[in-house]
């Protein structure tokens, strides 16, 4: 009787694994045939004004840097944010950007926390959530006063700070590039994960395939 129960449990597990394997294969086929980015490829934008400093297929973020003729440096760290539930566009996540602007020979810098989301009417505009003045890149402790909430600033000052970033290259071509690049990178990582799980399960069921 014990032997019979063991055989039954093994058979049931094999059926469950086979069912999971079919679902994984269906999801892989769906991802491989996905055309979610095709309508946006012609607006892919460019990072040509910025040099890509860090971009790994194993990481979620990308780091860009640009040095202006004035000597100023603009560094951007960007990564996908949280899922936007109820959103039916090609890009289910907002892109989060941390932008730092520094001047040569000066230890202080300006830091902006921004977000980029898909907008079919006006490209991929960015929003500023926070603006900080830091005496140096080392002054990042929680006790450091970073300024008032950005939303409480005079609207004219908010607009001027956004124009300040735009004049330093944070414009639509760049934000379009970041949206496409980071979402495609995330899709590639998801597909790679699916294939690894499929391979692991398939190895355990050579007789059922």
Automatic annotation (TrEMBL):
InterPro entries: MAM33 (IPR003428), MAM33_sf (IPR036561). It holds the Pfam family MAM33. It comes from the Eukaryota. This is Mitochondrial glycoprotein.
């Amino acid at each position: 009787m014990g032997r019979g129960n063991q055989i039954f449990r093994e058979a049931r597990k094999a059926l469950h694994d086979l069912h999971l394997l079919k679902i994984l294969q269906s999801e892989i086929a769906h991802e491989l045939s996905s055309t979610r980015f095709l309508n946006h490829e012609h607006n892919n934008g460019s990072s040509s004004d910025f040099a890509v400093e860090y971009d790994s297929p194993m990481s979620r973020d990308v780091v860009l840097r640009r040095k202006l003729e004035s000597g100023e440096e603009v560094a951007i760290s960007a990564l996908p944010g949280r899922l936007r539930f109820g959103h039916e566009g090609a890009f289910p996540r907002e892109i989060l950007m941390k932008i730092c602007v520094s001047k040569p020979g000066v230890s202080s810098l300006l830091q902006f926390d921004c977000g980029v989301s898909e907008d079919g009417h006006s490209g991929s505009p960015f929003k500023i959530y926070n603006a900080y003045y830091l005496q140096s890149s080392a002054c990042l402790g929680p006790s450091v006063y970073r300024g008032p909430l950005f939303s409480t600033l005079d609207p004219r000052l908010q607009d001027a700070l956004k124009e300040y970033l735009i004049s330093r290259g944070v414009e639509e071509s760049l934000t379009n590039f970041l949206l496409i690049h980071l979402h495609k990178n995330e899709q590639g990582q998801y597909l790679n994960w699916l294939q690894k799980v499929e391979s692991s399960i398939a190895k355990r069921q050579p007789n059922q395939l």
